[in-house]
Amino acid sequence: MPENTPAIVAEDLVKVYPGRGRKPAVRALDGLGFTVPAGRVFGLLGPNGAGKSTTTKILTTLSRPTSGTARVDGHDVLRSPDAVRASIGYVSQGASTDPLLTATENLEIAARLRGIGSVDARKRAVRLLDEFGLAEASRRPVSTFSGGMRRRLDVAAALVHGPRVLFLDEPTTGLDPEARAAMWAEIRRLSAEDALTVVLTTHYMEEADRLADELLLVNNGRTVVQGTPAELKAALHGDSLRVSLIEPDPDAVRAAVARVHGLRDVVVEASGTVGVLAARTDDASAAVGAVIAALDAESVRFGQVAASHPTLDDVYLHFVGHTFTQAGAPDAAEIRTGAAA
Prior knowledge:
Layout: E1 8-17, E2 26-36, E3 41-45, H1 52-59, E4 67-72, E5 75-76, H2 81-87, E6 88-91, H3 103-113, H4 118-131, H5 147-158, E7 165-169, H6 177-194, E8 197-202, H7 205-211, E9 214-219, E10 222-227, H8 229-234, E11 239-246, H9 250-257, E12 264-271, E13 274-281, H10 284-297, E14 302-308, H11 312-320, E15 333-337
Parallel strand pairs: 3-8, 3-9, 6-7, 7-8
Antiparallel strand pairs: 1-2, 1-4, 4-5, 9-10, 11-13, 11-14, 12-13, 12-15
Helix pairs in contact: 3-4, 3-5, 5-6
């Protein structure tokens, strides 16, 4: 691939899953398009059902788009699927290694399936086990591994053939904080040391903020916004204000804060017995006191009140109109007031 050529180019991707019986058709992707620079960690960020996994499946040739085009490492996913597969590694959400085999056996088999000779397969397995901190456990059955160890082995297996692009689909889901931090360090190492393009799908805001050189926010199969985490947050001026609500009545909350000066992008969301009031303001110190007073005056029950610099959740709120955490909740009551800044 020529220098400076993007690792991935997707244009107007549409994916419609046909309906079955009484279930209607699902439009998982609706004209999604983006470009991934080579040698970067690129984050696909969105709530469950946003279209992240469908996008990954198309780019890895596991699924065909209904329409639109995509090129990976310069190869068209429909016209040259074999060339795409030779250029990529893919780690799905589920485990990809055999729990009955040892770590070494798993990697050797993965290499042999890629057409690598037995001697080279053994060498690559030894090297990767060392790089991923699994050398001491190399002869143990994978069934004895912790969740974090298994995920590292999954990544190692995806790298045995030296791919140029690595797809990680929700790589830290279900991991404890320590294992998640170890996986983050591994992803950054791969990008920095091996000049590997890493495409990371995640629904963890912190993960996307910490790891990604560039982000694409996706919602309902469409592009919301793309840029570096710093650029996206810097585009929002002022501070963010969030209030945890207890058994909220959205109408009452909206009425309570309607007269608070300086609030904008106000969103009230409720799901069951909990909810959130989110807004932005240029003067957080003044707004906190005013919002607390307004809620108290209307007997609105609330818990934690927090003010902070803009976060990726605020970016999502600004461009989509609801908070990221409530994006996939069908029973969330949402009320938006005020003008977008």
